[in-house]
Amino acid sequence: PSANRSTSTVWLRRQGLHAVVFTNGFSQGAMPVTSILFAMESLHFGSVELGGMLTANVLLMVLASRPATRISDRLASRKTIMVPALVAAALLNGLQPVAATQLEFAAIFGAGAVSSAVSMPSITPLFLDHTSVRERASALAMRQMSQDVGALLGACVMGVVATTSGTSVAIQISAALQLAAAIFFQLRVPLKPPRPGERERVGGVSP
Question: Cα separation of 174 and 93, whole Å?
Answer without folding.
Answer: 8
